[in-house]
Amino acid sequence: MPTPPGQSSSQPLPTKELGYFKKIVKSYEQKQYKTGLKFAKQILATQGFSEHGETLAMKGLILNCMGKCQEAQECVRKGLKSDLRSYVCWHVYGLIQKTEKKYDEAIKAYKQALKLEKDNIQILRDLSLLQIHIRDFDGYLSSKYELLRLRQNQRVSWLGYIVAHHLLKEHTLALAIMAEYIKNNTPPGYDFEFSELILYQNLIMREAGQSDVALQKLEENSTHIVDKVAYMETRANLLMDLDQPKQAEHVWRVLIDRNPECLEYYDALQTCMGIKDSLESPKPQLLMLDALAEKFKKAAAPRRLALYLVEGEELRRRLHEWIVPMLRKGAPSLFASLVPLYKFPQKIAVIESLISEYVKKMDDEGYDKVNLNGVSQECEPPTTALWLYVLAAYHFDRCHKTELALHYIDRAIQHTPTVVENYMLKARIYKHAGDYDEAASWMEEAQSLDTADRYINGKCGKYMLRAKRIDEANKMLAKFTREGENAASHLTDMQCMWYELESGRAFRSVNKYGEALRKAHHIEFHFNTWIEDQYDFHTYCLRKMTLCSYIRLLRMEDRLRNADYYYQGAKLAIKIYLRMIDRPDDMNEHSALIKEGMTDQEIKKMKKKLKKQKELQEEEEKKKKEKETKEEGLQRGPQIDAEALLKTEDPLGEAAKFCHNIHTFGTPKVTGYALCAEVYQRREKVLLVLKCLNEGTKKDPHHPLLHVQKVKFLKAWPTYDLTGIVKDTALSLIETVFGAELDAVKHNDKYKMEHQHEFPARLAYAEAQCAIDPSASVVNWLLKSVEDTTVNERSLKMMLKLKDGIEYGKYGKWSKDDNEKLRKLVNGLFPLALDFGGGVPHKSPSTNNSTVESK
Amino acid sequence: MADEEEKQQVDKHNWGSEELSKVSDTKEDGDDLKLNTDALGNLFNASAPARPKINIKKEDLQLIMNELELPEATVRAKLIDTNGDVGEALRSLCGL
Fold first, then answer.
1. Is the pLDDT of residue A853 over 50?
2. A309 — contact with chain B (CB < 8 Å)?
């Protein structure tokens, strides 16, 4: 017989107080916290019970729910101290530890509570939830076993026990228990939950490698399965696993009948027909796609997929058939559908010639008479011209022909001045050309045309951040955030990742590294929140029987930090931490103000002034914060202080925390591995450096950033002193990564020879050379590379990398003259790039209107 | 009176978490599973599921945790996978 709370104590309460205690528990369950606290006060005020353990525990639990975490902790601790024999005190102590994310502590506390009160269902449940949460599958299994033993006629007990076995890969046991359950509980008719269960059984069978049994069971139960698409997809995949492509092909075709736009179906169909990647010619694939295109007159997928298979005249013909109807309709996705073709120069040429032909025809015949199909049917609708100019602008922007792109977007705007997207495209062209100010002002123009549109509002904010106009951006974004509140904190509440990232980068670009780091840590915070969020699903999914999705959720959460946003945020943080070590003076945001040639007195004076300014600012912020706290009662969201982040004792350690999450989940980014290698190199974690170099090499053996790290490693390798299995492992890794060439200089020279026509590789060579020999001079060679027309990929992005790298000191010593030479050269290549002294000439600060008129 | 007010407040501000608490609350399902008692007997006559014990040396654990900056749980799981072979575990964690 279970002991009810309040009687388990070694400090038994008299009847009256026991009544109060029961009321506390009830109020807690009904979330009437204030009432609960009132009763707790009554007991604690009674003589002899001022230190009553279980009452203190309950009081703490309630305080915790009210957000008073600090007070709650103290209360619960005090309670536990005064009554160590009470399971309630231990249970509550565990719950509080859980909210503090001290999972190991919490599990220990639950186990202690269970020792005192064996078979308490509630504690067992809480324990099992935490065990699955931290992926202690063994522990989860034994808790689920106990729960099933105690509650044999409850469905969730059975399901939990099956899931536990499945997660431990004990498929046979899981399936045996599942079979027993199904045998006794097959419903007579339609039942969604049973359908889910059947699909889950099937998932386990497939993971156990029993495709044949899985298929057989799937067919037996086909009438029970409500989700017909899942049924057919599973069936087709099983048939493929069992080497029955003909039958599988049939199922895929039925699926395409249902949804002719699903690209995966086409892919699987090709595999079944044995025509995927046919080396000789894409003919069989084209036949298949054309037949389906004929069958599904309105389907885009078969037509679009065919575009990526052909070349030359054939491509031209198909593109014509693809583009013209889209231009007539004004389909916004037209350019996006062509993007995969831009990997191939010949295909770009075909697109360009088609576009020029259309434009010429339009010009020659007049856009109210022209017909792009040649045959003199009806003339084109007037908007065809508009979308043609837009397409041309996209095309030339993509090809880095800024002038032409601007020419066409201006024609489009002239044609119809009210299309918001046209101004957005114009802004985008300026952004790609490097004039972020002009880009932002065109985005503002677009925004002003539709102030009720959230998307364009967001875009406008983003462009302002790129132009380093942080305050303006926040004002713009505030139009769509909660009234009377700072846009930044609202967007953090909303876990708005693009904003965290862009504003972090904006702060970095104005040397506010603390604020930038804070934004990166917000991203980390959001990811932690999402890991936390899965907690509720452990109960919910078992109850709702959505087990396939539940298993998918668990696996997704395990690799959540593999997401691109996490990588971008981590990169921002790691690079700032490295900068703290390499260039500590940068961390002072006003360091740029102290110029050469200033006298000591002047510097002193300025520093004093800045300090005063800062104090004033801090005072103000403090006041603001206090006001916010007062208004909201408690503070929401991450409480991360920018100044404190900058004052860290161990920047390398902080960077390594981010690195861990980048390489552990097998990120697809080579640059990620290179960045991690840099950090681990400095921490002298040889095996981790090699692991990252090895993984990176697998993805792209010649990546420039990885090359730099390889050379740095080779240079440092002779200085490491390793023994035993660590040395053995390191040697095997070196063998895989480097082969026989272990000389840093030779390795670097070889790389230079092999990749001399690639600008990024040249940058890498120069950086590596300077790392080997800090006195090496690469200035002239790099300057020559910038203007060498035989060198490819001399993009604006690369030029910015060069510029930043010079400032950082990656490429040796550059004199003022050298820098000016570089500026002039790049300015010649990219006349609109602000970073190299270019940009649209402005007469006065607000020339928006006059520019429109002059065109 | 005060209770009433409090309840209302909760509703207004926490409607999201209210929904969630509905799904994660702890009320017991009324269940009427039909079960074959023999099968259940078989299931529970066998003692609680026991996991194979693998001896893991503390210094092995420490070595890998230090070299690869990994949490204990990850390293322990890997060492169980490799039957306690520290060299094999290290190589596997390094991607070899």
1. no
2. no
pLDDT in tens, A645-684: 999 999 999 999 999 999 999 899 999 999 999 999 999 9
Q: Write down the pLDDT at residue B9.
A: 46
Q: Say if CB A389 and CB A412 are below 8 A apart.
A: yes
Q: How far is CA A740 from CA A746, A815, B95, in A?
A: 12, 39, 20
Does B33 contact chain A (CB < 8 Å)?
Answer: yes
- Give domain status of residue B35, yes or no: no
Q: Which fold has domain A1-118?
A: 1.25.40
pLDDT, mean of residues A547-553: 97
- pLDDT category at A3 given cuts 50, 70, 90 is confident
Q: What is the mean pLDDT of chain A?
A: 91
Where do runs of H (alpha helix) occur along A633-738? 642-646, 651-663, 670-683, 686-699, 704-716, 724-738
Q: Cβ contact (<8 Å) for B36 and A183?
A: yes
Is B31 inside any structural domain?
no
Q: How far off is chain B from A103, nearest CA to CA, in Å?
A: 13
Closest to A388 (Cα-Cα) out of A352, A361, A412? A412
Rounded to 5 degrees, what are φ and ψ at A313? -60, -40
How many C-beta atoms surround the C-beta of residue A129 within 10 A?
18
pTM: 0.89
A236: pLDDT strictly greater than 70: yes
Q: Which residues of A touch B90 (CB under 8 A)?
A: 687, 725-726, 729
What is the domain count for chain B?
1
B23 contact A CB<8A = yes
Size of interface A-B (CB pairs under 8 A): 101
**Could you tell me if B78 and B89 are in contact, meaning their C-beta atoms sit under 8 angstroms apart?**
yes
Q: Which of A149, A540, A691 comes nearest B44 by C-beta?
A: A149
pLDDT computed for residue A378 by the predictor: 77
Q: Tens of pLDDT along B4-15?
A: 444 444 444 444
Residue of A nearest to B23 (CA): A540
Residue B73 lies in a domain: yes
Q: Find the domain containing B84 and state its range.
A: 58-91
Burial class, A762, CB count within 10 angstroms (exposed 0-12 / middle 13-18 / buried 19+): buried
Residue B55 is given by DSSP the state -
- Chain A residues within an 8 Å CB radius of B26: 122, 125
The residues that bridge with A792 in the sheet, in sequence order, are: A758
Match 């690869």 to its residue by tokens. B68
Is A228 an 8 Å CB contact of chain B? no
Select the residue of B2, B29, B51 nearest A34 (Cβ to Cβ).
B2
Residue of A31, A154, A685 with shortest CB distance to B69: A685
Q: What is the pLDDT of residue A609?
A: 79
* Structural domain contains residue B71: yes
Which candidate from B10, B31, B91 shows the least CB-CB separation from A153?
A: B31
Looking at the predicted structure, is the pLDDT value of residue A581 above 70? yes
Task: Please give the structure tokens belonging to residue A387.
Answer: 């979308």
Residue A775 DSSP SS3: coil
CA A527, distance to chain mean position in Å, is 9
Give the pLDDT confidence score for residue A375 in this predicted structure: 65
A79 exposed, middle or buried (CB, 10 Å; 0-12, 13-18, 19+)? buried
Residue A582 makes CB contacts below 8 A (sequence gap 6+) with A808, A809
In this complex, do B94 and A155 lie within 8 Å of one another by their Cβ atoms?
Answer: no
Instruction: Identify the closest residue of chain A to B8 by CA–CA distance.
Output: A32
Token couple for A641: 């202080």
The residues, any chain, with a CB within 8 Å of residue B82's CB and separated by 6 or more, are B88, B89, B92
pLDDT at A591 (0 to 100): 67
Based on its alpha-carbon atoms, the radius of gyration of chain A, rounded to whole angstroms, reads: 33
ipTM of the complex: 0.81
